Structure formats: C-alpha cells, structure tokens
Amino acid sequence: MENKASDLTAMLTKDWQSGAAKNITFIVTKDCQLACKYCYLVGKNEKERMSFETAKKAIDYILSNRTLFHQPAVIWDFIGGEPFLEINLIEKICDYITAELYRLNHPWFTNHMFSFSTNGINYDSPKVQNYINKYYHHLSIGITIDGTKRKHDLNRIWKGEEERGSYVDVVKNIPLWLKQFPGASTKVTISTADIPYIYESVIHLFSLGIHEVNINVVFENVWYPSDDIRFEEQLMKLADTIIDDNLYIDNACSFFKEDIGKPLDPVEDNHNWCGAGKMLSIDAAGNFYPCTRFAAYSLREKKPIIIGNVRDGIDQNKLRPFLTLDRTTQSPQKCIDCEIASGCAWCQGENYDAAETDTIYQRSTAICKMHKARVRANNYYWNKLFRKLELEGKREEFELNRPKHQSPIC
Ligand code: SF4
Ligand code: SF4
C-alpha cells in the first residue's frame, strides 16, 4: 500500500519539477491554531473560509477547460492557515474532483495527488484519519516540525498563548505519520533567531525517523551582519556529524546538494526559480492568484495580484507577465555574473513585496550572504564526504545507492 502511494508521489513530484504537473491550490481557510513568529501570512483570520460552492465552481472551470489545463498530471494542494481545520470541506472537494474526473473520463483520473502541508496538530483526529484512509493512494502529506523542542517552540507557538509552544502537540503524531508515509519529509524554515539551533534540530529530526529534511532560510531581509558566519559554523558542524556518523547513508538535508554553488549559463539555465504563474491558487472569495504568495494575506506592502476568478476564468493579460519571467530578466547583474549562482533561490511573491515599485521583475537578493555561506559549507561537505568514501573504497557503492530524496525548495 505504501509503495503505490510513494510511487505516485515520486512520479508526480518528477512531473512537477519538470513542469509537467499542474499545481492547483485551494486556500481553504486563513485560520490556524498557531501563530508562528516567522509566518509570512500577515492577514490570518477565522472568517475567510472557502465554501464548497466556490471550490465546485473552480473545479468545473478547470475541468471544462482542457486546452488551458492540458498538463498530463495534477497536484491539488490544500493550504491555510491550517488546512486540516477544514477537513469536512476538503473531503467533499476530493469526492467531487474524483467523481468528475471519472465522469469526464479525464486523464487526471489516474494521475492526480492531493497534497497537504500541515502543522500536524490534529493529524490523529478521527476525521483526518478517516480521510487519510479513504484517499491514501493519492496523498502527499508534510508535517512541519522545526527540530528540537527549544527550536520548535521558539517560533511555533499557540495563537494567543505566547508562552505555549506546540512541539509536544506535533511530535506525538510523528510516529503515526511516518508509519503511514515512511518516505515523508519535513520543511524547516530558518530565520535569524533560529541559527544557533540548526545543527541540533536537523540531527533531532533524523533521530525521529524523518529521513528527508528540507530546510531553507527565509527570503525576507531579516539578516544581521554576522548571521552568515554563525550560519556557516552551524552547517560545518552539521556536515561533520552527518559524515562522521554515517548519517548520509539514510538521510538527506537539503542544505547539502552537489549541484549548488556553480555558475549558471545565461541561456541554458535561464528559467524562473519557482512555479508562480504556472500554478493556480484560489481563495475563499473565488479569486485566482499566480501563487498564494500574491494573495492579500501574504503581502506586507503590496496589493494582491488577482489574475481572474471562478466566474470569469483566468485573465490571460494578467497572467502573461508571470509566464515570461526568467532568471536574467529579473536578476541584477551581480547575480547573472555570479560564480556560485546555482541553488540561490528567490520567491516571486517576496520579490514583488520587497520591490521599490509594483513590479514582479525585481529580484530580492536579501539572502545573498546566506547563500554564499551555504555554498562554502556545501563545498566542505562534499569534499569531506568524497575523501572519506575514496579512502574507504565506497565511492562506487555510494553513487549506486544515492538517496533519491531532495525536493524543490518551495
Ligand atoms: S544573490 Fe548573491 S549569491 Fe545569489 S546569485 Fe545573486 S550574487 Fe550570487
Ligand atoms: S517561491 Fe514564493 S512565489 Fe514561488 S511558488 Fe513558492 S511561495 Fe510561491
């Protein structure tokens, strides 16, 4: 049972990375039990909940426009706030999607996933568990846990209770989650206050049985002068332990990737970093966005960018600027010429929010020194690992059995 689900996940993840799967996101609620300190969602509230009628109109529009939605596969994403707060609605939406895909003899019937990123708090509730049993073969669920208790509780606190961290409420559900989805990964976000805890947190997550830790620094301009040095020290320590204790055999931490820190070809590597515009997000009012990061609740400084709605469909004129985004048109010269550009990410929504004007064509480089520190540690990691493997005569074996993990950053 697990294999079928993970095969489908792997296949769709591959399709998604190659741009072949359509990603459609329902913002089902803007409410959450937690009030994480680093959360970029500035407009969370309990009122904006999606109705089934709105979701149904969106699905009808999407499924009746095969020319626009021609991709061979689809990932239906449910986000919040906390999506599982709306489990009744989600089940109804999934029932409807499945029935319609069958009725229409749609190619997505055999090629779709329902995907969730959850805080994990009500993962073990009977309603969520019934849903998981029902749709198991089409599910991809990520639970966010930030690391050790002190790291997790630093940021992930209960709403209205500054002193109450959520670690114990989440960690209790990790064994059940891993039993149901053994290859599951978690996503960790690092801001300036989290730097001292990176090492202990990644090691802790591996010890919980989470073999893939996707970790990234926030894109916002929050970094203090010595943060890059402290960051590098943590990553070097982490590299030493992963290699010395042979943790690299079963685990992967996305800070260390062989292909980062290299120059990029202005023609061959001229693609946009993320899928903004190729994806579609729908909110409770029935508005369409190029990504949830362009909805009002995600933006600090700018107005939302709405590219259509469930009644009128997508306005191609509003979508077009997103489809022509690439690396060179939005990057400053220093990034185009950068010798270590590969793996240096950006978030289209943050670019827009941080730009001096209302443009999406101005790349924010707030993470520049953090990427440089990561590259230095990454070089250290691979040099050390390959030297060890050569000395032990295990290089060939490693190449054959490389962990298949490592998901995109967003
Ligand atoms: S932000 Fe800095 S590290 Fe990243 S590509 Fe630009 S110059 Fe290079
Ligand atoms: S990087 Fe930002 S804009 Fe791009 S898909 Fe992720 S949240 Fe959306």
Structure characterization notes:
This protein has 410 residues and is of the alpha/beta class. The protein has 2 domains: 1-182 and 277-324, TIM Barrel (Alpha-Beta Barrel), CATH 3.20.20; 184-273 and 326-410, no CATH class. 38% of the residues lie in helices and 14% in strands. The protein has 15 helices and 13 strands. It has an 8-stranded mixed sheet, with helices on both faces. It has a 3-stranded parallel sheet with strand order 7-8-9, covered by helices on one side. A two-stranded antiparallel ribbon has the order 5-6. A hairpin with a 2-residue loop joins strand 5 and strand 6 (161-165). The longest helix is centred in the C-terminal third of the chain and has 25 residues, at 368-392. 40% of the residues are buried. The structure holds iron/sulfur cluster (2 copies). One iron/sulfur cluster (SF4) binds at residues 274-276, 291, 293, 347-349, 410.
